[in-house]
Predict the structure.
Amino acid sequence: LYYYFDTKDGMIAAFLDRAADYLSEDLLRVEAEDPEAALRDACEFLFRTPEHEYAGIAVAIMELLSHAPHNETLRAPLLELETACLDALTDIVGAGVEQGVFRDVDPRATAAFLLAAADGSTGIAVALEMDVVDDLRRGWMAYVDSLLID
């Protein structure tokens, strides 16, 4: 692999670009025609289990995030990935607010909270394989339920 890349960071950045493409494509495939279903589908995708097909990639990305503040080569593709996820979630929540499905919440703040929670869940549920997958699922489901207009 080093044959194709000048540095280890370059190789990792290429991996991140590819991983970001796959993850973003899957998340962006979620349609916002039914915002509640779209948000639930997005959460199912983002709150990974150890068995999830992208679990290993999610752990690798989580580990690389710790290097981002000190490594611009890694920071750029990581920022692109997180921004794409945040934007997709923001669009879903925004559509839900506009359609009267969700309460009048700040779509960006709601999306940021869900993304941060999902990113954190990767550490405890996937990397450490703590027995919290069902707890996390109940938690994000209750949060999504709390967004709904009664």
In short: The mean pLDDT is 85. The two ends are 55 Å apart (CA to CA).
